[in-house]
Every structure is written in C-alpha cells, then in structure tokens.
C-alpha cells in the first residue's frame, strides 16, 4: 500500500540501530481518531498510481536475466487427426533456435488436467483433437526467432471426423468429458402432465472469450537441484505449482510460483496457465536458462479455453397466472476435447437454472459434451450465467404465452420462505436469505419501470422503424466453491520491528481490488492506517495449498484468513501490553494508530518495538474454512452454498428493425454486496461485470469455420464492448441496507461474478423490442449472442 | 544521391539515433525490449486494443502536432523526424501525476491496470486537443482502447474531470513546444534515408519525386504509409516486407486542397487529415468517418492505403466510388487517372503496375440536388470492420431518379457498384416502390459470402433494407428511421 501514502525514506542511510527506529509513517496521525482505509470505506486500488504511470509490473515487464530464452508453441492445424509424421528439422535449424520440446521430452507426466483425469496433454501425442492444440514448443534466443521457427514445422496428418458443437456432439454420440449431473426434486414428468399449459423450447447460448488485456505468460528461472521458480499471470498459483511438478516429475516443494498481478483473468487464467508454466519450467530446466513464453493474441485465443456455449432444451408447465408447476431442462455444453473444469462448470449451470425462482417439481440434466474444440474453462459465473439465462428464457416464454409483463411472472415465481415452503432449490438447499423481492421492488420504483414500460409500449404501437424494449431481470447467485475442500484459505502476516506490516495471502490480484480489501481488513483489526500495510506478491512459498482466486470467493476466504492472522498477533500484543503496563487485557484497546493501555496511549509502532525487545512473536499464519457447507453430488443434495448474493437490473433498448442494430438507452442496477468492504471497488465490479455480461449476450461471437478453426481470435474479429456501447444512462447503486446474515468477513458478500448476469436485462429488452413486431404474441426466442444479425433475423421471422 | 543511413527521432526527452532498423521492427518492441519502457503494453499486436498507445508528434506545415498512435504496428523506421511520447513521460517532477493520471486515480479508472497506460495516453491527447470534452468526444477518443474490467464508466468520469485538474497550456509538451519543434526541424535534413538490418531494408524517400525514383529503381518494394494493414502482415503473418518504402513522413503526399470543383486528397492523408474537408462538403460523412476504426488508426491509416490495399471491406472505397472519385497513379514522371471503381479488378488484384504508386484522390464537390448517404453495418458499432458498407449518391429531378451511383463493400471480392439496382432506379419515380424494386435487384449484383462477420443472407437482406432506409431518410417524417448517432 506504500505508494498511496507518504513515500518511504530510503532505509539504512543513517547509523545502524537495532532494532530500527519506528518509521515516521507508522506513528500515524497523532490526534486522528480514525484510521485511513478501514473496512466499509472507499479506498483506491492499491496499485492505482502504478497503473496510471505505467510502473505497475506485469509478468512481461520483469527484468530478464542475461541469457533468457523464449519459447513458442507449435499448434495443430487440424480439428481431429492422427499425427503421421512430426518433422521439426526445419524448426531446429532456424536462426536462433536452441531446441525443441515434444511429448517425448517430458520427464514427468505429459498432462496438465486440473481435475486429475489425465486427459489434457501438454503436447499432443499421436493425435490432435482440436485446431490450435499445442504439438511442440520451440525455444530460441528471442521471441521473434522462436515464433518464426514454430511456423516451419512439417506435420503430416491423417484426418479423422470432427464434431464442433454440443448438439452435433449429442447427435453423433460423442462421449461426456466428465460425469454428468442430475438435479431432481419431486416428480417433474407427472407435474408437467398435470400442468394447464406447457411450452417446450430450445435455446442456443454462445460462449465467450475472456479477452483479458494481458495474455497468457509464464517466465521460469531454473534453480539448484530440482528447483524452479515460475513467475506467471495465473489465478491459481498452487495448481500451477502442482502441474509443473507433475510435468517435471519432481515434488511440489521444488516448484515456486509467483504472481504479483494479472492484467485481467476472469477465469481464463485459472487452469489455462498451467500449460504455459509447464512449458517454461520444462525448458528452463532443460537448458538451465531463464525461459519466457508468451503467445501472440491469436494463439492465446486459439489454444486456450473459453466460456462454454450451451444448447438448452427446456420444458415448463404453468397455470393461467403464469405460476410455474414444473421445469425440465437438458443442458448440453461444448466442453472441448478434455474435461478441464467442465464438470463443475456444467454442475453450476444446473445450480443456477432456477435463478431466483421456485420450481415445485424439477428435473435438470447436464450433458458435458466432448467436442473437437479447445477445452472450455472457467469464466466469471462458471456456468451459472448459462443456467440463469435459461431460467429467464422460461419466464419470458410464460409471459408471452399469458400476455403478461415478464416482471409480473417473475414476482409470482420468486422463492418464498419457510412458511409457504416455496424455499427449496432443485439441489435441496433452503433459501434462507431471500432478498430478491425487495431488491426488485426497490429497483422497479427507482427505475420508474412501470411508466417507462408503458411509454415503450406506446412508442412501439406507432409501428415505426425504431422499436424499443425494456426488461427488469434479477439474479440470485450461490457463493462457495461447489468443490467443498476449495473453501479454505491461508494468510501470512508479519509485523516488523519498525511497525511496518507485511501481508501475504493465498489470493491473487487480477484487478478486482482483492489486495486492497484484505489490507483494509487487517488495517481495521490492528487499527493502523492502511498505508502501513504492504501487500506482497502471491507466492506458493508463503501460503501453501491455496485455492484458485475464483468463484467470487477471494475476499470472503482470504479476508477471513488475514483477519485470523491479525487477531493472533493482536492477542499476543494485547497480552504483552497488559503484562508490561501492569493492567488487565480488557484495558488494552487498539485505536487509530495507537494502543490505549490502561490510562496511557502508546503509538502502535512503539508497542511493536517494545514487543520485539520482549521477544514476542510478531508473525502469524492465518487460516479460514467456510462453515456449514456440504454437498453430495451423487444424490444431488446438500448445501453447496454458504449464502446467496442478489441483484437486479432494468435495461431499455432501441432497435433498428431494418438492420438489427441496437443501442442500450438506459440501465439501472441495484446490487447486493452485503456490508461492502469497499463500496467504490464493489461498484466498479458491478459496472464492469454488467458490461462484460452485456458483451457476452450482444456483440461477442465466437465463430468456427467448418474445418474447426476459430476465426474470431483477436480483437479485430472478436468484439467486446467499447465505451460507446455502454448504456446512454447508467445508474448503479449498491443495496446499502443489505448485510450478510451469515458471519462472513465484516458481513460483506462476494461481488465478482453475480453482477455479470445483470447483462441479461439487455438481452431480454432486445427480445422485447423484437417481440413488438408480432404484437408481443410470440416469444422471439432470440439466441445468444444477439448480434445485429440475429436481431434482424428474429425480426424477419416474426414478420412472416 | 545524398543518402542518410540512420534515423533520428525524439523519445520523451531524448534524441535517439539508430543506425540499424529492419523493415519489420516495430516501435512497441523497441520501447519494451530495447529501452525497457515497459509502461506501454502489448495487448493484441494489431492496433485494436490500444494498450500500446503512445503519442507521435510531427511537424505539419511548420506546426508541431501530436496524435495518439498504436506502437504495436508503427514501424520503427517510420519514426524519423518524430517525437514519441510514452506514458513514462507524463508525470511531473517528483513523480507528480499528470491531471489525466490524477483523474484516473480519483475516479477509479483502473482495475487490472493493463489497458490503463493506453487509456491515459488517449485521454492525454484528447485533453490537449479538447480540454473540456463532450461525452461524444470522449467516446470517440477512446474508440481504439479496450478495457475489459471497468465497463468504461469510471474512465469517462475521469475524462470529464481531468479538465478541472490542470490546463493544457501549462503542460510540458505545450510549454516546450517551441524547442521541440526546433529540435524536430533540425532532424529534417531533406535527405533520403536508407536504413537496414541483417539484409532487411527500409527507404524513406526525400520527396514525392524521390519516391517516384525509388519505386522506379525498386518496383517490387512494399509501399508503407500508415502501416495499419502492413503492420499486421508483420506482426501476425511474420511476412518479410523488405525492401519497404515508407511514405508516411512525406508532408507533400498528405496535402489536401479544395478547389472549385474537387477535393484533392494526397494519398498519404490520414482519415483524420481528410475528415474536415470531406465533412464540410458531405455532412453525412462526419459520423461515417468517426466510425472508421479507432482514433489511433484514423491518425495512422491513409485514404490512399485504404484504396491501394484492395480490400473488399475498406470503408472509404464505397463512399469514394459513389461520389465518383478518381485516383491518380504515378510511375516515374508519368501519371494516369482512373475512376476508383476501375482500380479494383478482383480479390487481391488491383490496377497498379510495378513501380507505380497512388499519388492522390480527387473527389468531385457536390452537385446541387443530389441525395447522399453512407451506411456502415458492423457487429459492434465502433472500431469494427464492416459487414456491409453502402454509399448512395442519387439525383432526383422532377420526382424521377435522374442518376444513381450506389456502391457497396463487404458484398463481393471488391468494393463494387450495384449496377442492376442503379438501373432499376434511373428514370423511375422516386418512390418506395421503385426503391424496393431496385433493392430486389441486389441479388443480381452481388453474391456475398458467409464469414465470421455476417452471413450471406444477412448481408443481402441488410443491404436491401439500407435502400429502404435511404429512401425513408429523405422523407419528411417525424419518426426516426435509425438510431441516433
């Protein structure tokens, strides 16, 4: 945190003291009564100044040691084929090339499958299963030389039939990449048969590329014995460590993985960096030189996984009022050639196929389909958005069928409470914290939904070229890793004898402000200005066995672990102070950079120095595991989520019915983050997630040609939202009254993923505008993403 | 021939002289690898994300002019005589933040921070040009910058707020304007520059006449103006473009002249250079021009390049064809003039002979009474490549169509006129019926392709609907027929 505070004086310029004198800044503001940067206050991202000055160091900015080599991947140019011959002689002979690596050069196991299914080779062996699969790596004196050489490979293939999309995969009888999940409550088939109305439909939901601005990168330095240090841009240093050890055939204690910060992750760097870390480490050990690997954006997008696209077949039974009686759903996902995280991703699609709605009888099945495409992976929401949007499609279907406002249908189907018994999810967890009705009611008011909907209908009634649409959609999102053991975290806290604090935890910083929030927690607990706390790079050396920074869990888990560490030291300091000042521990209070001990006020740093001299241990390892959660996948029952986060968005759009072009006129958001640790950072997460969710459903289209080659592989062809795509009016509020009913860190709630699904309001508003063409009699069944083309074609369908 | 064998430019506060540069060396690699100025980032290496944005200053008619450009596709050798300003140069003494940087911090405009230096540089350029910008100006200035974290709102807030934090008049680049201009002027010695590395060659001709000579001597050379396309040959296809003849520094090739009858645009004029003159005569082109790529690319890419590279999806050729523009090609001292539409022969094939170069574009000034429109259809509104681009130039006389020039891009192997559709208009009453009948003939003019930007069906359908839009927009109607700009 140092760079937002007073810049530190260079240490060691004066005469040697032992221990060093308490630092000036650590004495705090003297008369100040409140610390700077406690919890529940707005605080800048800890790297803000480094970001704007270009001084924030990313992996590619680390100074390279003399002799650093560069690796580059050679990728397959077939979607599915046997490798008949792999001739790398021209690659080896190219200028600057030091050597090549293939599957034969892997000393350990040629596999980086994160769930241990042994289905994801570092380098293809004997066959390739998607266009863009790594077949070899070339290592050269410069990145340019390696990249040029990689293109010289001569690979002879014998083509095999390929399957690209989930529906074709089901039709072709392709296998599952991982066991499917069934969620079942009640007897859906019988309830469906009894229902007064029934609708069946199919919904194609597209995938999404992460398009983190900083692409994949790993930088390995060989050490003595089996040791290797890997700097990388990974969300999951521990897994990268395990994978490097696995590939090198060494113990985990030989491998250190470091991450200072990422230039965006969004899930794309949870498992996908394993490959790059493994190749860099392999080459570093092989040639005993530092080795960096950084693919070009085209190769990054071709060779690494994305959000799963789904084909959802749904059926809903309901009554005249639009109240749901039964739902069945089959969720087929494009998983790609290997399992990666497709198991938990497709599970989470089912966990969220109810969104905020009670399904009295329900049967949901996942179909994690193997396809000859890159293996899809985590992406903000982790399958949840695909489940949520299916629920919202079902609501839409009912609304058009019954001639109702879709918001009315939503309200009639919200989860209830213990009294009415309408509070059980398809996975048999009870919804105990349901604030969706309140959030939606407040947003309906503040966004002036009713009057604006009326105005939209009036506008459309004139029958012009430009049509409008409006929709208000909620989100309820379950928080916790569904892999229960992942819900643990560690932290390491040192207080140095000058009173400065060094904080380390297992989470990684990818822009979400995790380090800032965790520092705030420690600042609050120790009652010191946050500027005294330096957060250091995440490293497997300091906190072992960490979980991925994912599932929105970063501050929930690591904040609690850091709090535990801070409390331990605080207890020691308290005991020491009571003893030293001859008072009772209850008379020791930490207040604004000072400690009140009996009748005396001692600067924090002075107390620390005294404690050091008295040989008090000023370092602590903190730990946390989430309580209450359990999950039995086989029976489909349990409490996978500690709590739920809620939100709602209302969006209004205009659509040009001649071209399908559209514009988002206004979006209002009310989102629940419990008692926010840092409201301005949380608001930034909500705004950013909404735009990213909107992009997923509008302009971001992944397009494979019939040979299985991804043709949208760079920002020139893959279009994420720009500033001019954001709503013309954009009102974002946090539900300031909300407080987590569970004992989370300072009663806050997770924020990374839930607001992503607020983008669905734009998608449904587009659908509403399209529906006006046929006087709202027909659900337009718009597929996602709703590119201008899909919008126009839906309009044309309704005209017929 | 007096030849200089090095390039010289200013980088932040320093003068740089390089004796070696390959044709394929880029500014970004030079900054990051050679100079370790790592604040400038590589996000895409194709000029689409803006993480590598730097300012390029150059003398333009004696005036020093700074523009944001993409360092990733800016060729190193093209920097001769320029001033490159990177993010490292912005903070004041003792690391005091520049107003734009301070505004970005104050308004939480960074999350992961990777795109941030690029945004800072674009906003810096905007702040110097328009210190108190409108939201539209802000959006236009950052069309070429992608942010994946913030959703842009805090960046917009920062851009609005920067004006209150400092005045451009006090900015270092403005205070030192005179001395920088003098230093740049001193670097321009009017000599031809030839520089190379490991057999790769770059030539910067001394003048347009010298360019003609160079090309006569080296007819197989790659002509590079803004490098917004050639840059990708280098960064994406790893193509060898040597010998490369760079023309971006030739002020006389960027010249614009408006006569009584025509707008004469030097082939080296950028989209930015040509915007004002085009929009003055053809107001409908103001919005269209701002939808060509992003600001950085509009500062780099040239009208001549947009034609000469022969792309079927360039944005200006359909417009120029509809307006009846001509181009002048030159080889040695010989010039020939032909209509823009005749230049495009087939995919990848243009009517440019070895040693010949595109010297200028001549756009006729508007004839009274003609109806004009230019529409761009793309997946994303801004900074996208057209799925379809359609330009209309129709003269209606006494209720009947007297003349029609309609050209479309994205519909065929080349930008092309819709001859059947035009024929169905001319001589007929100017009515929706006529327009619909003409639109129905588009299938005779075009057999579009399906690709990742659009399907053949959509391309044809939307083109037909654009005919309807064109007609509807000419009617005196209260109801809007398209989304506002």
TrEMBL record, chain A:
<dbReference type="GO" id="GO:0005506">
    <property type="term" value="F:iron ion binding"/>
</dbReference>
<dbReference type="GO" id="GO:0051537">
    <property type="term" value="F:2 iron, 2 sulfur cluster binding"/>
</dbReference>
<dbReference type="InterPro" id="IPR014309">
    <property type="entry name" value="Xanthine_DH_Mopterin-bd_su"/>
</dbReference>
<dbReference type="Pfam" id="PF01315">
    <property type="entry name" value="Ald_Xan_dh_C"/>
</dbReference>
<dbReference type="InterPro" id="IPR036856">
    <property type="entry name" value="Ald_Oxase/Xan_DH_a/b_sf"/>
</dbReference>
<dbReference type="GO" id="GO:0004854">
    <property type="term" value="F:xanthine dehydrogenase activity"/>
</dbReference>
<dbReference type="InterPro" id="IPR037165">
    <property type="entry name" value="AldOxase/xan_DH_Mopterin-bd_sf"/>
</dbReference>
<comment type="similarity">
    <text>Belongs to the xanthine dehydrogenase family.</text>
</comment>
<dbReference type="GO" id="GO:0030151">
    <property type="term" value="F:molybdenum ion binding"/>
</dbReference>
<feature type="domain" description="Aldehyde oxidase/xanthine dehydrogenase a/b hammerhead">
    <location>
        <begin position="53"/>
        <end position="161"/>
    </location>
</feature>
<keyword id="KW-0408">Iron</keyword>
<keyword id="KW-0411">Iron-sulfur</keyword>
<dbReference type="InterPro" id="IPR008274">
    <property type="entry name" value="AldOxase/xan_DH_MoCoBD1"/>
</dbReference>
<feature type="region of interest" description="Disordered">
    <location>
        <begin position="1"/>
        <end position="32"/>
    </location>
</feature>
<keyword id="KW-0001">2Fe-2S</keyword>
<dbReference type="Pfam" id="PF02738">
    <property type="entry name" value="MoCoBD_1"/>
</dbReference>
<protein>
    <submittedName>
        <fullName>Xanthine dehydrogenase molybdopterin binding subunit</fullName>
        <ecNumber>1.17.1.4</ecNumber>
    </submittedName>
</protein>
<keyword id="KW-0500">Molybdenum</keyword>
<dbReference type="InterPro" id="IPR000674">
    <property type="entry name" value="Ald_Oxase/Xan_DH_a/b"/>
</dbReference>
<keyword id="KW-0479">Metal-binding</keyword>
<dbReference type="InterPro" id="IPR016208">
    <property type="entry name" value="Ald_Oxase/xanthine_DH-like"/>
</dbReference>
<dbReference type="Pfam" id="PF20256">
    <property type="entry name" value="MoCoBD_2"/>
</dbReference>
TrEMBL record, chain B:
<dbReference type="InterPro" id="IPR016208">
    <property type="entry name" value="Ald_Oxase/xanthine_DH-like"/>
</dbReference>
<dbReference type="Pfam" id="PF00941">
    <property type="entry name" value="FAD_binding_5"/>
</dbReference>
<keyword id="KW-0274">FAD</keyword>
<dbReference type="InterPro" id="IPR012175">
    <property type="entry name" value="Xanth_DH_ssu_bac"/>
</dbReference>
<dbReference type="InterPro" id="IPR016167">
    <property type="entry name" value="FAD-bd_PCMH_sub1"/>
</dbReference>
<feature type="domain" description="FAD-binding PCMH-type">
    <location>
        <begin position="195"/>
        <end position="368"/>
    </location>
</feature>
<dbReference type="Pfam" id="PF01799">
    <property type="entry name" value="Fer2_2"/>
</dbReference>
<dbReference type="InterPro" id="IPR036683">
    <property type="entry name" value="CO_DH_flav_C_dom_sf"/>
</dbReference>
<dbReference type="InterPro" id="IPR001041">
    <property type="entry name" value="2Fe-2S_ferredoxin-type"/>
</dbReference>
<keyword id="KW-0408">Iron</keyword>
<dbReference type="GO" id="GO:0005506">
    <property type="term" value="F:iron ion binding"/>
</dbReference>
<feature type="domain" description="2Fe-2S ferredoxin-type">
    <location>
        <begin position="5"/>
        <end position="90"/>
    </location>
</feature>
<dbReference type="InterPro" id="IPR012675">
    <property type="entry name" value="Beta-grasp_dom_sf"/>
</dbReference>
<dbReference type="GO" id="GO:0071949">
    <property type="term" value="F:FAD binding"/>
</dbReference>
<keyword id="KW-0479">Metal-binding</keyword>
<dbReference type="Pfam" id="PF03450">
    <property type="entry name" value="CO_deh_flav_C"/>
</dbReference>
<dbReference type="InterPro" id="IPR006058">
    <property type="entry name" value="2Fe2S_fd_BS"/>
</dbReference>
<protein>
    <submittedName>
        <fullName>Xanthine dehydrogenase small subunit</fullName>
        <ecNumber>1.17.1.4</ecNumber>
    </submittedName>
</protein>
<dbReference type="InterPro" id="IPR002888">
    <property type="entry name" value="2Fe-2S-bd"/>
</dbReference>
<dbReference type="InterPro" id="IPR036010">
    <property type="entry name" value="2Fe-2S_ferredoxin-like_sf"/>
</dbReference>
<dbReference type="InterPro" id="IPR005107">
    <property type="entry name" value="CO_DH_flav_C"/>
</dbReference>
<dbReference type="InterPro" id="IPR016166">
    <property type="entry name" value="FAD-bd_PCMH"/>
</dbReference>
């Amino acid at each position: 945190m140092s760079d937002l505070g007073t810049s530190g004086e260079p240490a060691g310029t004066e005469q040697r003291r032992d221990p060093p004198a308490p630092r000036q800044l650590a004495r705090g503001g003297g008369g100040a009564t409140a610390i700077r940067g406690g919890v529940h206050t707005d605080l800048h991202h800890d790297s803000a100044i480094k970001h704007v000055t270009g001084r924030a160091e990313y992996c590619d900015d680390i100074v390279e040691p003399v002799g650093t080599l560069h690796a580059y991947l050679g990728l397959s140019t077939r979607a599915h084929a046997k490798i008949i011959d792999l001739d790398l002689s021209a690659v080896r002979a190219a200028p600057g090339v030091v050597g090549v690596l293939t599957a034969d050069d892997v000393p350990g196991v040629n596999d980086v499958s994160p769930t241990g299914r042994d289905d994801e080779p570092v380098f293809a062996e004997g066959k390739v299963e998607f266009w863009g699969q790594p077949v070899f790596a070339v290592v050269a004196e410069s990145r340019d030389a390696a990249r040029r050489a990689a293109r010289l490979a001569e690979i002879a293939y014998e083509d095999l039939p390929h399957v690209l999309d989930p529906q074709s995969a089901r039709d072709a009888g392709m296998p599952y990449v991982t066991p499917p999940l069934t969620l079942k409550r009640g007897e859906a088939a019988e309830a469906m048969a009894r229902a007064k109305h029934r609708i069946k439909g199919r919904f194609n939901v597209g995938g999404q590329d992460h398009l983190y601005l900083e692409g994949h990168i790993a930088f390995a330095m060989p050490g003595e014995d089996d040791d290797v240090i890997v700097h990388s841009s990974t969300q999951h240093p521990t897994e990268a460590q395990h994978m490097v050890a696995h590939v090198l055939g060494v113990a985990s204690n030989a491998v250190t993985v470091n991450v200072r910060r990422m230039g965006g992750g969004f899930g794309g760097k949870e498992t996908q960096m394993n490959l790059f870390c493994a190749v860099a480490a392999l080459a570093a050990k092989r040639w005993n030189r530092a080795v960096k690997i950084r693919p070009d954006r085209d190769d990054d997008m071709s060779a690494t996984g994305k959000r799963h696209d789904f084909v959802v077949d749904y059926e809903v039974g309901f009554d005249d009022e639009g109240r749901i009686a039964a739902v069945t759903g089959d969720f087929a996902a494009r998983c790609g050639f290997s399992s990666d995280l497709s198991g938990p991703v497709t599970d989470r699609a089912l966990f969220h196929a109810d969104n905020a709605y009670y399904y009295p009888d329900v049967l949901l099945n996942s179909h994690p389909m193997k396809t000859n495409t890159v293996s899809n992976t985590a992406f903000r929401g982790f399958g949840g958005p695909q489940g949520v949007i299916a629920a919202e499609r079902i609501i839409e279907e009912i609304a058009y069928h019954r001639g109702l406002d879709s918001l009315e249908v939503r309200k009639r189907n919200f989860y209830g409470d213990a009294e009415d018994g309408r509070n059980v999810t398809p996975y048999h967890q009870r919804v105990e914290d349901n604030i969706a009705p309140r959030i939606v009611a407040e947003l309906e008011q503040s966004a002036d939904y009713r009057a604006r909907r009326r105005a939209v209908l009036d506008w459309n009634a004139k029958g012009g070229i430009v049509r409008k649409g409006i929709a208000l959609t909620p989100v309820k999102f379950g928080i916790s890793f569904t892999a229960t053991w992942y819900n643990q975290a560690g932290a390491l806290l040192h207080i140095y004898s000058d009173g400065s604090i060094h904080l380390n935890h297992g989470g990684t910083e990818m822009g979400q402000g995790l380090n800032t929030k965790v520092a705030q927690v420690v600042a609050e607990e120790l009652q010191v200005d946050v500027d005294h706390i330096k957060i250091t790079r995440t490293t497997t050396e300091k906190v072992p066995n960490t979980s991925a920074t994912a599932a929105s869990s970063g501050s929930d888990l690591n904040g609690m672990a850091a709090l535990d560490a801070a409390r331990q030291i605080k207890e020691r300091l308290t005991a020491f102070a009571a003893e030293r000042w001859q008072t009772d521990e209850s008379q020791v209070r930490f207040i604004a950079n000072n400690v009140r001990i009996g009748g005396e006020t001692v600067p924090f740093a002075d107390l620390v120095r005294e404690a050091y001299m008295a040989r008090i241990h000023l370092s602590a390892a903190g730990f946390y595991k989430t309580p209450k959660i359990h999950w039995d996948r086989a029976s489909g029952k349990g409490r996978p989520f500690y709590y739920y986060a809620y939100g709602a968005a209302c969006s209004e759009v205009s659509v040009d019915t001649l071209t399908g072009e559209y514009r988002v006129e206004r979006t209002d958001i009310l989102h629940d983050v419990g008692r926010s640790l840092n409201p301005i950072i949380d608001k930034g997460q909500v705004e950013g997630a909404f735009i990213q969710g909107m992009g997923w459903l509008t302009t971001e289209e992944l397009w494979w040609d019939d040979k299985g080659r991804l043709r949208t592989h760079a920002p020139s062809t893959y279009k994420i939202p720009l500033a001019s795509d954001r709503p013309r009016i954009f009102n974002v509020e946090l539900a300031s009254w909300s407080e987590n009913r569970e004992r989370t860190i300072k009663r806050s709630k997770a924020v990374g993923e839930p607001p992503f699904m607020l983008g669905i309001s734009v998608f449904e508003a587009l659908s509403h505008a399209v529906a006006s063409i046929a006087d709202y009699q027909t659900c337009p069944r718009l597929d996602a993403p709703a590119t201008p083309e899909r919008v126009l074609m839906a309009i044309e369908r309704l005209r017929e | 021939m007096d030849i200089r064998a090095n390039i010289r430019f200013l980088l932040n506060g320093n003068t740089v002289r390089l004796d070696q540069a390959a044709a394929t060396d880029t500014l970004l690699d030079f900054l990051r690898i050679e100079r370790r100025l790592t604040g400038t980032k590589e996000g895409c290496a194709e000029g689409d994300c803006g993480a590598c944005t730097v300012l390029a200053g150059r003398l333009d008619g004696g005036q020093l002019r700074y523009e944001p450009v993409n360092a990733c596709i800016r060729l190193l050798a093209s920097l001769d005589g320029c001033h490159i300003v990177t993010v490292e140069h912005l903070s004041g003494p003792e690391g005091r933040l520049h107003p734009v940087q301070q505004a970005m911090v104050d308004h939480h405009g960074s999350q992961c921070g990777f795109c941030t230096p690029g945004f800072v540089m674009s906003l810096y350029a905007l702040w110097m040009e328009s210190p108190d910008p409108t939201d539209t100006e802000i959006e236009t200035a950052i069309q070429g910058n992608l942010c994946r974290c913030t959703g842009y709102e805090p960046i917009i807030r920062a851009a609005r707020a920067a004006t209150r934090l400092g005045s451009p008049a006090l900015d270092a680049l403005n205070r030192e304007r005179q001395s920088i201009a003098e230093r740049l002027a001193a670097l321009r010695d009017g000599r031809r520059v030839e520089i190379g590395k490991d057999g790769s060659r770059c030539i910067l001709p001394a003048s347009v006449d010298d360019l003609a000579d160079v090309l006569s001597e080296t007819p197989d050379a790659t002509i590079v103006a803004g490098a917004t396309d050639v840059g990708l040959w280098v960064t994406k296809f790893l193509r060898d473009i040597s010998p490369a003849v760079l023309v971006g520094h030739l002020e006389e090739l960027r010249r614009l002249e408006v006569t009584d009858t025509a707008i004469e645009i030097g082939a080296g004029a950028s989209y930015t250079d040509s915007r004002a003159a085009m929009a003055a005569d053809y107001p409908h082109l103001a919005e269209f021009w701002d939808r060509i790529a992003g600001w950085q690319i509009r500062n780099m890419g040239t009208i001549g390049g947009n034609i000469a590279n022969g792309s079927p999806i360039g944005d200006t050729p359909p417009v120029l064809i509809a307006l009846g523009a001509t181009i002048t090609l030159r080889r040695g001292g010989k010039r020939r003039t032909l209509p823009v539409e005749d230049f495009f022969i087939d995919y990848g094939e243009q009517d440019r002979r070895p040693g010949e170069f595109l010297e200028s574009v001549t756009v006729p000034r508007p004839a009274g009474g003609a109806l004009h429109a230019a529409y761009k259809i793309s997946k994303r509104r801004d900074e996208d490549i057209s799925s379809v681009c359609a330009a209309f130039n129709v003269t209606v006389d006494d209720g009947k169509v007297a003349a029609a020039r309609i050209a479309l891009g994205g519909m065929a192997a080349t930008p092309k006129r819709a001859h059947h559709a035009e024929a169905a208009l001319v001589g007929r009453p100017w009515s929706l019926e006529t327009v619909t009948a003409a639109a129905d003939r588009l299938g005779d003019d075009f057999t579009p392709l399906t690709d990742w930007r659009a399907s053949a069906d959509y391309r044809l359908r939307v083109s037909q609907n654009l005919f309807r839009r064109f007609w509807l927009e000419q009617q005196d109607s209260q109801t809007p027929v398209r989304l506002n700009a």
